[in-house]
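Usage

Read records sequentially. Each one opens with the input sequence:
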Amino acid sequence: MPQSFPGKRSHKETNQIRVFLALRESSPLTKNDLCRHLNLSRPTVDVAIRRLMTSNLVVRSGQGPSQGGRRAILYAFNGQANYAIGGDLEIPELNLALCGLDGTPGLEKESLVPTDLLPDPRKTLAFVTRSIRTLAEEAGISLGRVVGLGLGAPARLDGDTITFPGDTLPRWKGIPARAMLEQSLGIPVFIDNDVNYMALAENHATDDSVPVMSYIALRKGLRHELRLGASALVEGRIFRGGNGNAVWLEHAYAPLPATDSPADKPIHLSAKALLEIVGEFISPILQMIRMFDPNKLVINAVVLGRAEAPFVKQIKTGLKAKLGRECANSITVVPAQDRQCSGAKGGALAVLHDLFSRPNGLIEGLATPST
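and closes with the structure output:
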């Protein structure tokens, strides 16, 4: 598993990173395993392991099978050395999730942003900051062990600023959310559309890699409407387009019945109302399908409660009618499997994907002295 790394770095540093990434990919391994896999000498591996253990990034993991002599020690990637936090600012919902370096979900929290804070971006982001600090405290870790925050929102991106469409929240225009949160938290922050993060979480949870996956999510809006968000993954990576807003469905929304439930509860729909919603959303979904020609369409309609399964079925039927049986049969249409705090978990995964794609400074940024 040879790997090359750009930039100036000593051989010791490069080999340390190679050993670390090899253990991240295939733990546990013995030192002899690492020597064979990486074509490194035993003294080189000894030094790398010693330094990685001092940084708490690698731990002992028992002993290998006996081969007639002394049993070799196994070493493993420490997925709990540090953490990533993901957030989904769905408005008014705020979902947070903590993940280890190995992507294993940890503590998750769901809350509602107080109504009086929503119109003011600074007050809302201050609430997000407090909630993240509380999450870390409840998990028993300091923010110094958090490698980054991935925050998703149903917003339009413009560089590092976000804008909520329409006139529901008129002050949320061109808000430098990334800079504001980095200043208040002191950790790296990534901002993206929350449906992109939901798609990442789904891809990670199912491990069902397909060349192209389209993903749609239904959420409640602040004006008693149902909104449709979308994303596309190509070879497991978010397709963002030229400016970060690919698959943006700004005007895809449908009014909800007046007897609907509160913002944080599933929607109760009659058969007639469900048909009307399907009618509103089939055209933008069809447009997305024609643009991306996906192998799989994942539908997150958890917000519909008991109507989720009929919604997925009717969308599938509608696509067959519009595309023709042969084309529609080439697309697998399924409900989302990752359903709890998926946008938040995807945000944490996005942080980890970025972290491990940039070897420069990787060990230094992760190092946490063992206790």
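Summary fields computed downstream for this record:
- Confidence is low (pLDDT under 50) at residues 1-8.
- Residues 11-77 form a domain with the Arc Repressor Mutant, subunit A fold (CATH 1.10.10.10).
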